[in-house]
Amino acid sequence: MELEKEKRNDYDLMQRVRNGDMLAFSQIVDKYKNRLMNVIGRMVQGNEEAEDIVQETFMRVYQHRDSFDFRHCFSTWLYTIALNLARNELRKRKRFKFFDIFDLQGKEAEIAVEMELPSNLPQALERAIEGLPDKYKMAFVLRDVQELPYEEVAQIMNIPLGTVKSRVNRARAILKDKLQPRMEEYNALSKGTLLPVSIL
Amino acid sequence: MRCQRVRYYLSAYCRDELSEGRSIAISEHLDNCPECRREESVLREMADALKRTNRYEVSADFTGRMLNRIAAERFSETRTRAFFPKRTPIFGWTRVVPAAATVCLILTFVLTGGVKTIYNHDLVDRTMAVSNRGLNDSYLTAQPQSGNALIRHAAVSTSGKDWTLKSQLARYDRIRSLISAMQGQNDFASYTSKAMESRQVCCGPRIVIEFPSAPSSMPVSGGSQVRMVSGGNGSN
Q: Could you give the number of structural domains in chain A?
């Protein structure tokens, strides 16, 4: 019900944007900027690049406002544009990989500590998400982080519903496998049992 | 349900994504399996931790920058077109393609003799005018060179004579009557008289061939008399 209401509201705003109403466009930007940033930020792992992609997404929406098909969901269209741009960015990065030795030296220890620190499970989880393969990461972020329905994820990624479900399931399994040993160590420590803890 | 099967569905079970029947089956299994219960607790903890992860957010001035960028684009869309129309490059496609097409057209025209054809049409027009004034226009008409035997005969028999349009038309009439004579009544006298009549219309002095009696064959020599009568239309 709420989804339907949101959809109708998006259509109204988009119709106004088509008629040249910039106020409606700023409302769309305000409504979706952080949602997009939360997805794209996790995909490309870099605030500046993610923000550039989000900005470019809204530019594309504005430039192609007349080609929006009102039979489809606006948010699906928006996420599709953003994820295509993110994919392009990732492809570019794969082609040209740059390493900053000094950065790595600093971060290596930082990552290690964060991963091993049991009190900081959310951060460890974020790191684990970053390490997921792109296709699993995209499905996982859209479904579990952004909490979009499976059907919408399937439309955004342009893949069958069953494939989305299996990718999300696989991503959860990978994350669980990564985090489970550390979580169990933490649970054991917090209960005062003596278990071999490698880092402490 | 076996542990392997349960663990496959466990993450979905923790998020209430399964059907009622499957959820009941899994919960029954979890009641009796401590290993799977431990897996479940890890997954629930993970789902909980996911809610506590940092959310990425855009910078505070994002909307302002965004709208400025769009305003700049709108300005360039409207103003550039109005005051600074886009220049067409000298050797751009819009100029090169029509120029190349024109050159090709002219070359084709010249090489295939298009100019000559036009010239000939012009000549025809001019010579038609000349012929209307009664001058020689034989070069305008088709010269009989091939075809069936009858036409060849006509060509041979009329060689050395004038090829004006009128005389050719008259010849054509004669040939037609000859053909009809051959096909129809086979009446030579009527043919010759008709032929002579048509001939006198255009070809000089009137020649009358008189037959002593209506022949059934072709007795031109012998008892026939040929006399010339002046007073043809005198076109020659």
A: 2
